[in-house]
Amino acid sequence: MKVLNELSVKDLKLNKKRSIVIIIGIILSTALICAVAGLITSFQQTFIETAKNSKGNYHAIFYNVPKDELKYIEENRSVEDYYLSEELGCSYLPNGDTSTGEEEKPLVNIISMNDKFLKDMAINIKDGRLPENDGELAISTRINEKFKTNYKVGDTITLNIGELKGTSENKNANYYDEEQIKKTDETEQMAEDEIVNTTSKTYKIVGIIERPTTTIEPYEADWFTVITKMQTINKKANIEKEIQRLKEETVKPTEKVNELLKKYGTTELSTGTKMSELLKRTELDYNKLAPIDENRPELTLQEKEEVEIQIKYEGYIKMQEAQVEKFKKLETKLLPEELDYEQIKGLSLEARQKLNKFKPRSIGQASRISGVSPADISVLLIYLQVKKNN
User: Are 330 and 360 in contact (CB under 8 A)?
Assistant: First the structure.
């Protein structure tokens, strides 16, 4: 080893110029390789940051995930983090005027998002801030640009949120649902879009946002995006727990209770009743009952409002939920494409003509065709049942 070192040193001394050139070449080559590697890394990081800022910070998106299956994502060791959003429904805004002067109904899609989704999905604020609770709303600047609505931060807006039925539903409501895409051609000629099973909710506008990424709002969509904060699990639990308590809490006909009822002009008690029954009275509300409700927990203003709404309108809400379930069942009852409705006895003349013209895919679609009455739907249901039995 010593001999090799001595020979190497001797060779370097004898060929000084060549040795210096070789050393300089090695240094330059190393510097060049490092520079190229650094440049590639820099470009890669730039592309990543550009994608995050324009499309959001994520690798994959899963649509229409049932809530009971979220655990498979939460418990997956390969998933570092995940965000949640939910389409609450659609609503028409008050009539607006387009730049051409034509009157038109602006259609909005209300999407609730959790904190991480709001933070990491490239939602850019133009004015104000992002929603911090489910009573706040951020609307797309495109609404003010296309329509003379002039919504601004601080305004309150009431939306009748429901399920969109008609052509826009099939074209835009869920771009990634193959079943919806298949229905497009079959429902194109149906009546004007309508929103069914609506629920009224008032929001405060806290932000104006730029057009969201196409992941949220496709370019071809004829609706506009408005976003709100997703209701937290704790809030839902608080509401459910308080509703249950009010249904179990017994109010006795004491002097204090009857004085309060008399004060607000409602019938006094002669026997005990549940607190929830008192809350259903039109003269009373959740806050008015506070003096006689000693076991009341601390709730936020929105939680109190939600508790009151769910109890006061319990019958109506249950009826609406039953109608939704009934409607879902009708969607699963398929009608044969080759069916000749002229041969089905019991259908009205108008129903036979409309059904043969539109050829609905299911009973649900048939029920939304103008001119097809509930009696005609009953005839179709009986026809399908008889056909099934045969």
Answer: no
Contact 297/249 with Cβ under 8 angstroms?
Answer: no
- Structural contact between residues 173 and 63, judged by C-beta atoms closer than 8 angstroms: no
Residues of the chain with pLDDT under 70: 1, 12, 94-104, 166-193, 232-234
pLDDT tens, residue by residue, 114-142: 888 888 887 888 889 999 888 899 988 88
Three-state SS sequence of 236-290: HHHHHHHHHHHHHCEECCCHHHHHHHHHCCCCCCCCCEEHHHHHCCCCCCCCCCH
Three-point CA angle 86, 87, 90, nearest 5°: 160
What count of other Cβ atoms lies within 10 Å of the Cβ of residue 141?
A: 18
Torsion of CA 51, 55, 59, 64, to 10 degrees: -170
CA triple 293-297-303, angle to 5 deg: 105
Query: What ranges make up the beta strands (E) of the chain?
Result: 85-92, 96-97, 103-104, 107-113, 125-128, 136-140, 156-165, 194-209, 224-229, 250-251, 273-274
Backbone angles phi, psi at 99, to 5 degrees: -65, -20
Question: CA 260, CA 294: separation in Å to the nearest integer?
Answer: 14
